[in-house]
Amino acid sequence: MLQTLPTPILTALAGIALSGCLSDVNKLSMLPEPTGNKPFLVGWEMRTSDTSAKDAHKKLYRRYNKAVDVAAAKIGWTLEQRVLANASNLSTTSDPERFRSASSYSINAPDLGCEITVSADDRVTPNCIVSVNVGGLISAETPEGVKMITADAWAFDQSMAHFIRLQSSDNRQLPVAEFSKLVSANLPASIFLYKPNDDKTWLNNGNVVVPE
Amino acid sequence: MKHFNKAFAASTLAVLTGMGVFTGSAFTATPIEASIQQITGEVRLIIKRELPSGEINYEKRMVPADEAETREALLLQDPSVLLVERDTLAFSPIPMVSPIPATSQALLDGGDPVDYSDPDYLNQPYFKADETYNSRLSEAHGRIRFTNRIRIGIIDGGYVRSPEVTYSEGSFIHFGSTSNQFYNDDPEIACGEGASTHGDQVSQIAAANSNNGIGIAGATQNADIVAASALGCFGNGTLGDAADQIRWLSGATISGLSDISEPVNIINLSLTAQTSCPTYMQDSVNYALDRGITVVAAAGNDTNDAANYAPANCDGVIAVAATQSDGSIASYSNLGAPVSVSAQGSQMAVYIDGRRGITSGTSFASPLVAGIIAAAMSERPNLTPAEIATIIAGSGKPLNDDVSGFGSGILDSMIFMDGAGVPREAVTAQSALSGEREQYQEALTHPAAAAFLQAETGTSGACELYQADGRFLESQGADDSIAVFSVGAGEPLLPTDSTATLINSTPGEDRLIITQADIDEASASGRQIGVANCNLTTGSNCSVKANVKAFDPAKITLPAICS
Question: In this predicted complex, what is the ipTM?
Answer without folding.
Answer: 0.74
